[in-house]
Write a structure and sequence with these properties.
Blueprint lengths: L9 H4 L4 H18 L14 E11 L11 E14 H7 L6 H4 L3 H11 L4 H10 L14 H25 L1
Antiparallel strand pairs: 1-2
Length: 170
């Protein structure tokens, strides 16, 4: 019989009968639970009381995927404007803008940078020349021969479609 305050070694643990093994496991679990810090059972909650708005300046960005014109980016400088109660804001906020409402064509971006944020035309033009054209970009990781074959297989329908459309328009 095993005393309540002693635990057998691993080797002797194998020689125990099932009810003794169960009791030993219970005692080990109790001991582990006593060693672990007690976790609070009080539910945790997060709440917000107000919304603070910041208006950031805009600067010339470095996004390589902009096809034409200068890319835009948020500047580090901002102005804190209004503070609203979160419930009041949610009750009266304007509807969300669609993606097309948030996009600016290249002419609008140039005008915004030049007229509102004071960038010179030379700076804007220089930012456009610094970008690497999509066709000249290199991947950061070289492809294995298997990956190249897979990419060619994926692009084949596009190339066939392009050739077909070119012939049809002649």
């Amino acid at each position: 019989r095993i005393a309540d305050d002693t635990f057998p070694s691993r080797a002797s643990h194998l020689n125990l009968i099932p009810h003794q093994q169960h009791r030993l496991q219970q005692q080990q679990q109790q001991q582990q639970q006593q060693q672990q810090p007690e976790i609070s059972t009080v539910p945790r909650r997060v709440s917000f009381s107000e919304i603070k708005f910041r208006v950031y300046d805009i600067t010339i960005g470095d996004n390589p995927f902009v096809k034409k014109g200068p890319p835009l980016a948020l500047d580090w400088y901002f102005t804190e404007t209004d503070t609203f109660d979160v419930n009041d804001y949610e009750d009266h906020r304007p509807p969300r803008r669609t993606e097309s409402e948030m996009k600016l064509c290249w002419v609008q971006r140039v005008k915004l940078l030049h007229e509102k944020f004071g960038f010179r035309r030379e700076e804007i033009e220089r930012s456009q020349k610094m970008r690497i054209p999509k066709t000249k970009r290199r991947s950061s990781v070289p492809f294995s021969p298997q990956q190249k074959v897979m990419m060619e297989q994926q692009n084949l329908p596009k190339r066939v479609s392009r050739r077909y459309h070119k012939r049809g328009s002649m």
